[in-house]
């Protein structure tokens, strides 16, 4: 009876891991995911597998052993998705910082443009101002465009 209940528990967990894996993959964010939780699950499933191996895998309990392995594979896949989502979060964070730096670049460009024009006015020479503007994160710099363009 104990093995049947253990199998039911493992099947319930086994049905929830693919759902969780798909949700985390589609979410594209590591927010709400916990690395310690995933690692504890992996350790728990490895301990269950070792326990089954220590009592001996027979034909009667081989299905429980197989379910432990399938669940372990699903949780390890969740671990890979966690690191993928963490990298996507970091990339998005860098993109956001790039946009906040745009304000700084604009103010520095405006100040440099004012200084540049006042310097060249003294020399009575016209100058076309060139600045660097940030583009979307896929192409971080667009060279040679002025603020007027």
Query: What share of the residues lie within helices?
Result: over 70%
The number of helical elements comes to 3
Low-confidence spans: 124-149
**Termini gap:** 76 Å
Strand content: 5-15%
The average pLDDT is 74
Structural category is mainly alpha
The helix/strand order is HHHEE
Could you tell me the number of beta strands?
2
- Largest sheet: spatial strand order: 1-2
Largest sheet geometry: 2 strands, antiparallel
What does this protein structure show overall?
With 149 residues, the chain is mostly helical. It contains 3 helices and 2 strands. The protein has helices at residues 2-27, 35-55, 62-123, and strands spanning 131-134, 141-145. The protein has a two-stranded antiparallel ribbon with strand order 1-2. Helix 1 (2-27) runs parallel beside helix 3 and helix 2 (35-55) runs antiparallel to helix 3. The longest helix has 62 residues, at 62-123.
In short:
The protein is mainly alpha-helical and 149 residues long. It has helices at 2-27, 35-55, 62-123; strands spanning 131-134, 141-145.
